[in-house]
Protein 1
Amino acid sequence: MPLIIDAVLILQALLGAFDNLWHHEWQARLPQQRGARKELALHAAREALYGALFFGLAWWAWHGWFAVVVMAVLAAEIVITLADFLEEDRTRKLPPFERWLHAVLTASYGLYVGLMAPVLLRWVAEPSALVTAGRGTVSWLLTAFAVGVWAWSLRNVWAVRRLGREAPPSGLPAPRGADAVLVTGGTGFVGRALVLHLRTQGRRVIVLTRDARQARLQFDAGVALVESLDDIAPDTRIAGIVHLAGARVLGRPWTRARRLQLIESRTRLCEDLRRLACRLEQRPQVLVAASAVGYYGVPDAQLECDEQTPPMPEVFQSELCAAAEQGARRLQAVGLRVVRLRFGLVLGREDGAYPMQAMAARWGLGARLGDGRQPMPWVHRDDAVGLITWALQHDDVRGAVNAVAPDRCDQTRFTQALAGSFGRRAWLRVPAWPLRLLAGEMSTLLLDGQVVLPRRALEGGYRFRHVGLEDALRALRSPAACRPWKDAKGETTF
């Protein structure tokens, strides 16, 4: 087979892998989106066929009627891709770069089909047989691609089945004219669970989202969706605001531009919320804003941080959280009670840090990072939602609240407990120096931590559903059906 054909196929594989990882996994987070089941099913089918194509063409020439099989696979890829384009347009708003990349992938696939056409016609004229045609390194590279896309196909099949088992979004009918709760970041990991919980209470909910089409597939009719706060009419009755939106901190390097983006993603929206509160005829009562334990910086491992502990200057994660909280505090000036929840590592099955770590632990690849003694404050997602609800409905709660479980642990204990929940042992160790070299200051999120006490929550009567780490990990391993959260007085309404 001509080298140019192999080169185009390899390029197609690399571009497709990038599209999967960057857009489908990192940006759109499709495996966590209930409305993406059909798109994921299409991806799984396409990847299974690509795997067959890579492997089949790596080692054999398909003569006679066998060439018709290759033609059928190429044609099926086109049909599935067209169906995928229609499904994407129906369910989500694609960013410009993803649309551009899809155009490039379409063009490169068309080029590949055009180059393969003379080869296939020549093969059809031959007697039917599978003829060995290995090409050394190229064949092994295509085989590696085949294994990769087949694994990805199985993973998408698993995601489709898991999303199909999730209960459809539902809630009690919201009272007509009832005050709503506005949630930013409502399609995120914690926000999605919060919105569904509020709906089970019969609350009206407004979700600010960048993609209303994708969000509509996740929530029931009791959830109003807006893509801009300007779409909210002045006479809208909003009792409280939950601000969870913000660019993901762990991921892209903390360049100067990235740091500015992380800060602005949190503070700019706070200013928009302040303007919204000012123009509403009836102002909201409360703002619950998400912050993080990174507020305390990188303190000595023996220091116990409560809500009175100050931030740490010249440590970016501390500066980021302080800037976000300062933006939230500006709404106090317009009459809102402001609660700033400083979250630890939020554990949940669908997203966040738990799924990837659980997969590694299940395969016996749990690892201690550095010396493993860095504190690791955590909270189960049930309690993350519970603390938000508690902060909304208790008028005496204001200011900073540490949203972490009472049970302290370090990274070694967390890794061992996670591995133990799957009947495995954590025996690997990753030295600190390569992480610090590769990630720079961002490595502090993995290699340094804070001992954080949930003093305000405990003193205010909040009852944690998951107090101990082992209990929380068992619940994640075998989750029970979602139960309505109740506070110390047994109340569920806000």
Protein 2
Amino acid sequence: MNIVKMWVLAMAGLMIQGCSVWQDYVRPRVEIPAQYKEPPPAGWKVAEPGSPELSAAWWERYNDPQLTALLTQANQANYTILIAEANYRQGLALARASHSPQLPALNGQAGATRGETTNTTGVRSDYSIGLNASWEMDLWGRIRNSVIAGETNAEATAADLAAAKLSVQSTLAQTYFQLRILDSQKLLLDNTAKSFDRSLKLTTNRYNVGLASRTEIAQAETQLRNTLAQSIDISASRAQLEHAIAVLIGKPPAELSIPEQPYKDVANLSLPAANTGLPASLLERRPDIAGAERRVASANAQIGVARAALFPTLTLGATFGYSDNSLSNLLSLPNRLWSLGPALAGPIFDNQLRRSNTNAAIARYDASVATYKQTVINGLREVEDNLALLRILEAEAKEQETAVKFAREAVTQTENRYRAGISEYQYVVNVQSTLLSAERNLLSITGRRLNASVALMVALGGAYVLPQSNY
């Protein structure tokens, strides 16, 4: 075969480059409702086309400088995020590596051997130096699908990085809000303990003049000590939350101290509002959904890679160099050698290895499709859950605020009756305990509302956009 025929065959290979033995990727179809079942909470609305939605720094909507400072540190130093970021860089590197077979590979070689054969007398030295080039013709789309698989996998790791950030951010925000609720509960218990201490002194004075019994003093002491014990118990829980926040921002617990900052007016605490968007927007806004979809695309490309292995491969090779038994004359013209030609290789018998690999790739694709659809409906459920929770907790908070209002009125009336000597102390104990329970319940509901608000922000995915990378 002369050189002309070799080049004709090589050009024919180039003409059919990119011919694929597997179908192009199409995103799996998922049935998504046009609207959410739950209406948006107060202040929230469904986004109009082109309207601003959640920003990437969604926590800034809470107008809490301490929270913003902690999340800024977490975004830079949290180890879960750093692991995801390293995995993303690895994905980018592998995506770039998948492009390498698109161009010829060029290798240099040099050798020096010394030996003896039966056809020669004595020991012989051989020296060689040269270049080898090889280029696989992508007849069946193996290289093209490998590139697609690499790029889509890198995009999936980018989505994983965004999902890791969202997870850490939401965990930190919810932990921080729990800490502030504990600060508020401790302030409530400390103020209540002061009130109970005044009641104890009043009862002791009444006892000294014969207007109260020893039992009433014991009741007042019990009530005061129980409240002080509850306040101490909250300090233990708060310390654990503070330690958890330290780990989330990448610090040892000993290096973080968060000052107490109770909410001053829980009844008038407002939650941030934003646009909920339509259910279909979750496909682009949630990084976990985007990552699952990119893995479907990668799995589809891997089927193309596996199926291409069933067919022959055509490789164009070239060699140029020098070879001689004398190092001093190695680079002279008579010692020059070269070769150029195609090589065709294909499977004959592999005991079903390649076909089994293809079937395995198809199974992985089916699993990735199911994972993607499951991720989508889980995302929809999380949004619906938190929409419902915010709506219900808002109504519950209003009722609890009313309960606190009347409990305070009952305490005032009962304490006045006790001072006037027309009511027993047992009634004072009952109404004071009822008020404390009502106020703590209101704080608990407020904490649940804050956590549900954060969870909804995260469930909506923020302003996540799949990054475009130059591989």
Protein 3
Amino acid sequence: MIKKIKQLIKLVGPGLLFASMAIGTSHLVLSTKGGAQYGWVMVIPIVLANILKYPFFEFGVRYTNVTHKSLIQGYRDLGKRYLWVYALVTVVSIFTLLAALYVVTSGLLMNLLKISGTNLGMTALALFAFISTLLIIGRYKFLENSLKVVISILFVALLVTTVMVLYKGQAAPIANFEQPKIFDEVGILFLISLMGWMPTAVEASGWVSLWSIEKLKSSKNKPSFKEALGEFNLGYFMTALLAIFFLIIGWMTLYGTGVELSGNAVVFADQVVTLFTAHIGNWAYIFIAVAAFATMFSTCMTAHDAVARVSLDVLSKLYPNIGIFSRKSSFALTVVILALINWMVILLFSANMGQLVALATFVSFVMAPIVGWMNLKAVMGNDMPQRYRPNKSLQFLTYVGMIFLSLFALYYCWMVLLD
């Protein structure tokens, strides 16, 4: 038994990083808010989204483990136009994703630690500098090992928090409480956000693929195909489970209380911590505070690493004659450039951050079914031996997922144009 556990710990890698990256605002904010506003019924769209999107992320691990090539190389092999599609999504991420994540994390840190005398921009700069240093010095191996600790702390903190709220029981509803409608305009828009970002955006499949490449490079004993998929499945299951934990916290502490929840992610996170401790007791503050900050810190670290890797990989495939993109030093430089770009975005566009995030959301939602189809095309290509291609059941789930994402994207576009 102990030997099996040690073997599992050694195999942990891309699946853990995926879980760490995915457990961000989609969990801390959207899952919690889903439970707070609509109750336990929100577990249905959470589970549904995780099931329907599973193949697209799994294909990143499957393709890389078999071919020892990144999924981005798979796009290039399909044709340069496929690579340009993915490059478009990456460009939007470069100028929006990290800025949004670091803003939320910085604000959360300031609220939780009651930091005063400094502004959000300086706190974000300190976080950019700290995380960039960790990534440059430690590289993939440090990221993997450190996240084993962070995710363990996060899981224990969330498990304890969830058990405590279940033991305490549901908060007493206000008089004449009426359950909000799910299928009105507000409810539909919330469902779109929840399912669109649960567990994360589909383009992250390319990130998982690059982490799988690094795992293969850094491992003395290369994980087998079965082991690689098993490790990813464990990380994916943990991602879905923690989303349900956050849902339970929101449902048991806020549902029916009539509390007005902020649309601002930083303020909302602070509300959750404050209201939770009011419901359970101040002694429990540390558990939810640690869970909230560990959630966002680990997401910042993995997303920063992923965007740096994917940017370099896309550029090296688009412009193979420019050798600078393949140098070892390029990763460190890219990490720093991304930090500076996104810090400038925070300073210059903090008042319009919502619009930038809306742009990123729009591009991500619209491109999701296209990226999903590209992933299927890659794993069904000629460089994938027949025995390693997805079986009929997984192919069927993939097509259902693509239809779901397409309808999702069309409805989202319609809502945006209508607005």
Protein 4
Amino acid sequence: MLRGAGALALAAAAGTAVPGCGAEQDDGVGADGRVTIELWHGQADTAKAALKRLVADFERAHPRIRVDMGGGVLADAMLQKITAALASGAYPDIAYVFGSDLANVARSPQTVDLTDTVGSARTPWKNYWPSAREAVTINGRVRASPAVLDALAVVCNRKLFKDAGIPLPEAGWTWDDFTETARKLTDRGAGRFGTGWPGVGDEDTVWRIWPLLWDLGGDFMGDDGRSIGFADQGARALGVVRDLARDKSVYIDPKPGSEQMYQVFLSGRMGMVVTGPWQLPDIRTAKVDYHVVPLPSFSGKPVTISGPDTWTVFDNGEARAEAARTFVDWLARPGQDVRWGAEAGSLPLSRAAEARPEWRRHSEEVEGLAVFTKALETARVRPAHPAYPQVSQALGQAITSVLLGRSTPAAAMRSCAEEADAALLIPR
């Protein structure tokens, strides 16, 4: 919900901030001719350490550019931070921006167009997975560089399946199979759940429902361009959520970030969790004997969602903008991309990176990683549309109301459609 409010504030900021204001304060060029750029990286722990190593390598290869990683906030709070920064005129050169927030951030005149940058010979733009390209392209222009790439699949606890006498699922299973399996895995007396779902109503809650909506033929917007394109499909998709809640087979995480849900899985008290490759390092550290399987479907055809996040570049003058473009271009090349993906828990941005021996070895060492990578072939992304945060908020409220037993799928979708359609009609 905060993202929706931030998007509205950002729209206002885009019309009031002065282009190049940050450059007037500091052009980033030192007396020795070295350019310093500010990176709001949004990372913590393992990913932050991996990025720090990459930055050190970049600076050794580009001695006239220094990357300052000191500012910013964690990724979940980045939109609000960027909104305030653009309004004040003191913004970074690069920020880690969620793909679902990019359309609103890119409305600011301070956002640098990277179409020419990704078209360079060194950036494997045409070799990127389609979802990575689509996530950063708005109205035919590339408005950011892909930062990380992931996909959703189902991770299963082998021991709990064995204890329950249930065979592990295989590719091609259905959502009915999923809900039935979750029911069989559940043992309330032992504090064991079949699966989990974030229950805050935020984007973490919402993006898990999109594969179901797409599989049923729904889309973000209808053909008229004035209403959502998933009103009819929404009730059936929410039926899966209702069945999980009815069977009491779902752990509903009451806090943002899904940390409690993942802790339940890591502690051996959840049979299945819908997640991405970023969770595999923690699962392996916890020594969970696991199995990864593609998402179920209604149609029998594979479908998942990819959540590309971005490195968005801002204009603080020519020298700093050029240095920032150089950095994001370097970071996206297969050699660096493979290191970043392997160390930070994401997937290769391009087929060229996937084909590198380093990634092949890493994929063989990490069970299930190949399932996530294979899923990119049929992955879709959330739309880069300015009204997405408001539509997502309405959809999140619908999911939560069904999870908590406060509404039926049909009634929840009626409320969602009314609110989301109104958001789509607001001029932007």
